[in-house]
Amino acid sequence: MGFLSRRQKQPALPSDIVSMMERFGRDEFNPQANAFAAEEIGQLMGNLYSFASTDPDNFLVALAEAVLPVGGWAVYGASRTIWELLSPSASSPIRQHPSYNAIMNAAIEFLRANGVPPMRIRGYEWDYWLDSGGTIDTWVPRLPIPSQEEAPITTLQPGESRKVAQLTSALDSNIILVRRNSDGQHCAFIDARRSDEDPRRAQFDWKFAGSLNELYIQIGLALQTPPYWYDRELGPYFPLPPPRI
Fold first, then answer.
1. How many other CB atoms are found less than 10 A from the CB of residue 206?
2. Which partner from 5, 158, 163, 243 sits 20 to 30 angstroms from 18, CA to CA?
């Protein structure tokens, strides 16, 4: 009597995959606010790598079945996990896989629904959006640019400067100021650290315009959403509302 063949054990996702994907997604989106130790991330990716690398099709199917009913951070974390483990190139068949596209579509919609601006979107996410027919104008509906009558701005005297924005709450945050030059031209300049290695502050000219209204439009378009602090007169010039995540 011959030996009965033993079925090879099929790889499977961990039972807590949804909570792990939620946590990973939050950490990937904002590592400063979500402390996820590097060794924990390494362990998570290591535990999933064998399944993902040896059987990517079933890995994608299993991952999609786990996170799509939940959505939110779980599906965003899953989209990041796919790129961490499989890094699908433009010619990779993974990009044609229904489960990959379902996860990416859900992750993109999660970001858009929460008002995340294009400048905070990763390159491959933005390429996916454009390849799907999206544009910068349809990512999140823009607020109308106000006229000078709708959003009056206090005049600057020649040589006078004014702080209009601080990007983060950090003590060494970049600060944006505006100045009226002696020739009447208006300039936005940045006060910032010289580099990561050199904490000394320096000022760098950034944008120029013939009027403060034109300059505020340029600043608003560049920042996209309101930063940590901004002058109330600059507020109406941000084309996108504050993100919800």
1. 16
2. 243
